[in-house]
Write the structure tokens for this entry.
Amino acid sequence: EPEVTQTPSHQVTQMGQEVILRCVPISNHLYFYWYRQILGQKVEFLVSFYNNEISEKSEIFDDQFSVERPDGSNFTLKIRSTKLEDSAMYFCASTRGTAPYEQYFGPGTRLTVT
Amino acid sequence: AQRVTQPEKLLSVFKGAPVELKCNYSYSGSPELFWYVQYSRQRLQLLLRHISRESIKGFTADLNKGETSFHLKKPFAQEEDSAMYYCALTASGSARQLTFGSGTQLTVLP
């Protein structure tokens, strides 16, 4: 069964550095999402992406964040200048449409900012 | 804005006992409700959605619009049901992003 994959599984970076988190959504899916979960807190929506552009974003998704689908398969989340409070688990998800279809989640990337 | 509340962070029941995980929501429109589950060391996965009115692994959930609730129930819990359960909502007309509750860690004791 197809799965969403994410790399790396764990990323450690220093404050102020740029990081790129990578996701490969399921191939026939059209909508892509990033969520994050700070340790001990709830899973929070960051951004949704459709037809090569952002369709919605949350207040968390400020100018330090960007998303891209550079080659038709990868879906990336870039944090330009990481802060300590960006330390979290980042989940990618994809779905085939906007009806209440299932969102398929990746295993997550644990980002640790020191 | 929508919100999902799961009042219990931890819930323990004995094997064979009934289990109910509570979920309340606030949303002014017509919500779509889901239960997602995360077993140990596995990814988040859909358990069930209200629109399907299905029973998965013996779990059911009924949307009660009057009480704005979507509680998850199972009459006889099994040890393999031990997991983290998240209630989630999507808003109609949106890009269908999920708004999650804070989750309930269910432990089924032998």
Notes: Chain B has a mean pLDDT of 92.
